[in-house]
Specification:
Elements (H helix, E strand, L loop, with lengths): L29 H4 L13 E2 L7 H8 L11 E10 L5 E7 L5 H11 L7 E3 L2 E3 L1 E10 L7 E4 L6 H4 L7 E3 L5 H6 L7 E2 L7 E8 L5 E8 L5 H12 L3 E2 L1 E3 L2 E3 L1 E8 L3
Antiparallel strand pairs: 1-4, 2-3, 2-6, 4-5, 6-7, 6-8, 8-12, 9-15, 10-11, 10-15, 13-14
Length: 260
């Protein structure tokens, strides 16, 4: 939407803390990257991340009462995570916000539960993914009152606000399941306004591989968790982040919370 300043749409919380389009990617194999094969011999792999589907935004507008925004607080953002199955249904929806709009958060979380999104696909076959997104409410001239964006804003400064963030594949190794294999693990996924957080930053390349991971935040009591998440991320698979149908290397932040 033309005319938006980068600061208008809030980015991801850094402290405790789709428009659904066809998105395709041709992955160049390691042999080609090393000059040991030809492009013509490479099998094409096409990706399409999960999206919101046709009616989700309209449903959200009807189901959720808009927040009481003010001149000092003209924007309210709710950050969410959901598992999107091969049938497109959302499961395990969890939402967070940081500005005191707890009722808005609860309404958005309830509205997004068991919604039918558009499923992610690889080579046209549906795959289950873990998707992050945000619902943005605004009282600003030139900006829609409600927007659904397929990201948390980590890369908004680089790619604008409508990029699709990397989506963790649940049909393959995924970091949270690998972390939970440790019998001492207690962390729950995603943000929370209760207890401590562990946050680990990963870089996901344009073929969905994690190329690096390092801890951003962890309480001394949970340093072991951060190390375990780093290793789990390096073994995980993602659908790559997308910008206007093109895959891009992007940041991904894995978050654990520890309820009191």
């Amino acid at each position: 939407i033309a005319g938006f300043a980068p600061s208008v749409i809030q980015q991801t919380p850094s402290v405790p803390m789709k428009e659904d389009k066809s998105m395709k990617k041709v992955v160049v194999s390691a042999l080609v990257a090393l000059g040991l094969g030809s492009v013509g011999s490479v099998a094409a792999e096409q990706y399409q991340p999960a999206g919101f589907g046709e009616d989700t935004l309209r449903y959200l507008e009807a189901a959720v009462a808009p927040p009481a925004l003010t001149t000092n607080t003209p924007v309210a953002s709710v950050y969410c995570q959901a598992d999107v199955g091969t049938d497109g249904l959302t499961r395990n929806v969890s939402c967070y916000e940081r500005d005191g709009f707890t009722d808005l958060r609860d309404q958005v979380e309830e509205a997004m539960a068991t919604r039918r999104f558009s499923a992610a696909t690889v080579d046209g076959e549906p795959v289950p993914v873990r998707m992050v997104f945000r619902a943005v409410y605004a009282d600003l001239e030139g900006q829609p009152p409600v927007m659904l964006l397929p990201n948390l804003g980590h890369m908004q400064g680089d790619f604008g606000y409508q990029y699709s963030a990397p989506q963790e594949r649940l049909d393959d190794r995924n970091w949270y399941s690998l972390y939970r294999k440790n019998d001492w693990s207690q962390g729950q996924p995603f943000f929370s306004d209760e207890g401590e957080l562990t946050r680990v930053l990963a870089w996901v390349n344009d073929s969905g591989r994690v190329i690096s991971a390092r801890s951003l935040e962890s309480h001394s009591e949970y340093r072991r968790d951060a190390r375990a998440v780093e290793k789990a991320l390096e073994a995980s698979r993602f659908l790559p982040g997308m910008v206007s149908g093109k895959p891009e290397k992007m940041r991904y932040v894995a978050v654990l919370n520890y309820p009191n």
